[in-house]
Amino acid sequence: MKKTMLITGGSTGIGAATARLAAQEGYAVAINYRKSKDAAQKVVAEIQEKGGRAIAIQADLGVPEQIQALFRTLDNEIGTLDVLVNNAALLEPQARFKELNYERLQRIFAVNVLGVFACSQEACKRMSTASGGRGGIIVNISSIAAKLGAPFEYVDYAATKGAMDTMTIGLAKEVATEGIRVNGIRPGIIHTDIHAKGGEPDRIDRVKASVPMKRGGTAKEVAEAILWLASEKSSYVTGSILDVSGGR
Fold it and tell me: Is 157 a catalytic residue?
């Protein structure tokens, strides 16, 4: 039986790399996107050209109604959900803490915290053996910023990832007897377009000296860790958070 995976924010970066790798390993993949329709469709086409099954589903994870619609579409077009990868996240331009206005905080917490909670709730409703499901796996993509705090740049983003880490641990304990494993990954500085979104495309060159391995990571390196947590190879792992950060 082919397993299914939903990847939020799956059109670029870590999400897209995870979609490609999951398809190679036999998953049917649903790629959620907010604005990047062309990029999402490109990943879908790449997977389909290699004989895999993939669909793209638009939804803004800061809007509860769109999250519900996302999961209804998933039910109708993909079927039973086996793995949810909470990867979508909003990052605003670099700013000091005193410059973080309330509207910015509302935007980033709506997607990075409330959206993750809502997606995980919808997934658990479908996966829980207590509700007739067949179990499943949730992988939350946090950030090493949750440990470092991201001062002078992204304290708000780091705080949302800290909230995600806490949710990962608490949810894992709640659903451990319901056939659901919940784990997290904290990527370090990874070669994706997130740095450009923050206003500094060359940020990795500036900070890589602080990484023990002296380089940035690749999206595929993070995807490999995600697929391990999604597999039976990690069958006794839940409530854990794996740093994929080059030792940072």
Answer: yes
